[in-house]
Amino acid sequence: MQKLLLLGAEAIAQGAIDAGLSGIYAYPGTPSTEITEYVMHSREAKSLGIVASWGANEKTAMEAGLGMSYAGKRAMVCMKHVGLNVAADAFVNSAITGANGGLIVVAADDPSMHSSQNEQDSRFFGKFALIPILEPGNQQEAYDMVHFGFELSEKYQIPVLMRITTRLAHSRSGIVRRTMRPQNELHLPKNLKQFILLPANARRQYKHLLGNQAAFISESETSGFNSLIDHPDKKLGIIACGLAFNYLIENFEDQQVPHPVLRIGQYPLPRKMVTAFYDSCDELLILEDGYPMVEELLRGLLNKGKTIRGRLDGTVPRDGELNPNIVAVALGMEDTRGRDIPALVSSRPPSLCKGCPHIYSYNALNEALLPYFKGRVFSDIGCYTLGALEPFDAINSCVDMGASITMAKGAADAGLVPAVAVIGDSTFTHSGMTGLLDAVNGNSSITVMILDNGTTGMTGGQDSAAVGKIEDICLALGVDKDHIRVINPLQKHHDENLAIMKQEIEYQGVSVIIPRRECIQTLTRRMREAKKSQSTEKATV
Amino acid sequence: MKKDIILAGVGGQGILSIAATIGTAALKAGLNLKQAEVHGMSQRGGDVQSNLRISDKPIASDLIPMGKADMIISVEPMESLRYLPMLSDQGWLITNTKPYINIPNYPEMDKLMAEIEQQPRHIALDADIIARDMGSPKSANMVILGAASPFLDIPYEDIQQAIRSIFTRKGDEIVQLNLSALQAGRDFALSHLN
Questions:
Q1: Bridge partners of A79?
Q2: What is the pTM of this model?
Q3: Total count of domains within chain B
Q4: Complex ipTM, two decimals?
């Protein structure tokens, strides 16, 4: 059968389409973005009427997915790991309501922080919510697990978390597709009170969730995604979760590990399998990408049993992504690292694109703030975070989506006046609006720069929910219309922009400046596509 | 047969077009393939790499073990050296010599070239000039791929066929330009070997 060459993220998307998906909801975030984009661009998905849409943020996406599940259809919700923090309220409570149509939440973790502000491990969120977790070890498994995940979700009427990492999401491999399953018919939950989490109902639902835990464990015991590969040399037993299994077998001739290996791809952990494995081996090595979750569970607080090695005892580094060499060293094998990087090789950090509108916003802002001491610019998550680097050195914070405005408010309340917030258009509608309302209600002396490039830039130019709405939103939240200023961030307008910034920074109260110019990347793409369609028009004439 | 390849460059230089061509040729030859890419923040003018693995046996890790890569193919000279810890003792370094300077502390060119010349097995060529002289400045990446082609263990015809299938939408002229660029890079490498 012909194989499709797909990224792990795309394999999940194709798996969902083939498994009877009706809707996918997400907010862009590396490394999860390509899942939803794939469905959006799929002609097949379009012809099947599958809904694919970007929410204003991960919480709205999660709730829309839950609503589709309520209506009996299969839904998928995708986000990066920190997006799950934003969606957490809906996510944790969805475990109590349960699902109706199959519901899979995909959280894409980013160990080593390739494109993120932390490397939190979403498996803890799944455990916290008391729901089953699937962790694919390769692209084919990612595809297959979506089919299995929807079945599991509908069997127990429970959302299922699929945890992937950057390496799987952004690595390509051949996928064999299965036959397509039709979408579910619209059907309401049998019990129309299932989704009402009034305390009396919620207590019942929670007991139901607790009651299902044994069944979830027993599913893990019999799941094909958890397996024992036995070996007579039991001086060491190795538990390898998800991708870690690949790094392990990479180190051995013909991929044959000279110790028993317990491969984990489904949680909660299969208690019987793990117990038997623990009992049969002299000591254990735990290999897992992310936090030492399995290792902590096995060691416990007292760690009085057999020796358990991993990230907690330093056998494996405590932070960062695994790779074949880290695993080799953990096994006492030689590190095959090659020649050193010559000293003359300089680091090459990412930078704002040539012609990027943010460059001119930062140049003017830096100049406007010259009369004040440095350290008063709170920024946010997006391309403009690169304003932290030379030559701009323009910002002093980047914490989470929306934190620029609220941190500026808090700092201004503390007496740091003026305080400036710098936030992008998409980040503003994601989580900035409520903070702006707080600032208006508190009459805090802050200036909010909403850098409007009309897109979600850092993740590759997805639609921004803010387009055409920013002034109206600010007005509606109570910002004085005389202090909502739109400027064009171009070098030729520098003096004019600088004057406006100075005025608004001096203003005692909430002011908003909106530097507006299209992202240079989306502009280039648009021009290219326009040229292409023009030439095809010519060709057809 | 196993080829582990590090593709290197700067975000926006299009190293994935090389990966796509090799990948298409490898699939045609019935080989297994895994290709780890970089998306997200680093794509904005930062250093980027891709781990491309091809084998007639199943491939386990998406990442090439350090010190085991058979080849570094780089479209930028300084970036070619960044991945030396990945290269095996017997590995080849194939790099463009045209620098992409977007940082203030880019090394001096003569020192950089001396470092590349010091590598035991290397092919260094100015693919941009070769491509420009052929009237196809956008084909520099195909020149680099051509220079790597003698070391790939994939039939040259399959690589040519991959270029045809990838560029066919853009018309015959583009296909021919890329095929010529590929050949020019290959000729350079073969003459260097002799």
A1: A107
A2: 0.96
A3: 1
A4: 0.94
